[in-house]
Amino acid sequence: MSFWEADFYRRPLQDKNGNPLWELLICDPASSFRYSEFCPQPLASTDWLLNQLQQLAAEGHSIPKEIRVFRPQTFNLLESAAKSLGIRVEPTRQTLTLKAWLEERSQQYPKQPNYTGQTYEPLNLDKPPPLPLPENLWGEQWQFASLPAGNIAEAFADRMIPVLEMPEGLLPLHLGLASTTLVPGVVIIAGRRSMQLARWLQNVRPASVSFVSGAPAGLILEAGLIDRWIIATFEDTEVVSAAQTYEQRKQSSKGLHFLLVQPDDSGMTYSGFWLLQ
User: Fold this and answer.
1) What separation in angstroms does the CA of 52 have from each of 4, 35, 61, 113, 207?
2) Strands 217-223 and 227-234, bridge-based pairing
3) In 3D, which of 40, 70, 35, 65 has the Cα closest to residue 52?
4) pTM for this structure?
5) CA distances (Å), 197 to each of 135, 162, 204, 269, in order?
6) Alpha-carbon torsion 79, 31, 52, 38, what sign?
7) What sign for the dihedral angle of Cα 190, 191, 192, 195?
8) Contact, 14 vs 21, CB < 8 A?
9) Whole-number Å distance between alpha carbons of 143 and 259
């Protein structure tokens, strides 16, 4: 399925009247198609975006059925504009081509005469503090685990798992990982709440699970575009050491890791599995 990646947000630039400039960037994953257009902040709206999409269609561009965005403000504006054209807007952090282009563009703005000098981080998003998982969902126990990269597809791809998220772009072979590279993960054993937890996770769209040091230390689930959830907190030195090993293995696996939900530790039944990066 073809799709575009898009961003629409203000830049450290202004027009001749002193209005902050917003910029629309659209690309495909291969960067074979790129489109950019500036918009004065007073005109930044759903109607302006709709006009841009209609203009692209009128120019003969093949408009895909899906546009992916990583910024909440872009999603809120673009979803309404795209809906009237039958285009689905997918909120996801996996817009790698677009993010690389944003980084590239950020190096060009200071060279422009209308640069404002404002601090600008192209990928930064305002994130809320993490929230605890709902009490009615929490599992019975959790643990760190790891699997050789070469075994992941075999272990999960063909299993009857109700909630299974293994994007092709995150498969170890696609990332160029050696088959012996250990891919770390977090396993939650949730008992009778296993399917309920898996469905909830499916709805919040897991993006990554990270160790955060502190007193106490903890595991944070990054989900959706900016949501954050506390999976666990701990102070035990052995658990902290295991968490540090987990993060070290993530570095060796190019950030690839997994989240697994199962009803028990028999290894016979899984409720949900996510490949994350």
Assistant:
1) 14, 10, 12, 25, 30
2) antiparallel
3) 35
4) 0.83
5) 11, 12, 11, 14
6) positive
7) positive
8) yes
9) 10
Predicted pLDDT of residue 1: 59
pLDDT of residue 17: 95
- For the chain (length 277 residues), average pLDDT per consecutive 10? 93 97 97 97 97 96 95 96 94 93 97 94 92 82 95 89 92 93 96 94 95 93 95 94 97 97 90 96
What amino acid occupies position 56? L
What is the rounded CA–CA span in Å between residue 8 and residue 189?
A: 41
Which residues touch 15 (CB under 8 Å, ≥6 apart)? 21, 38, 40, 114
Structure tokens given for 185? 């993960």
Is the separation of the CB atoms in 85 and 62 below 8 Å? no
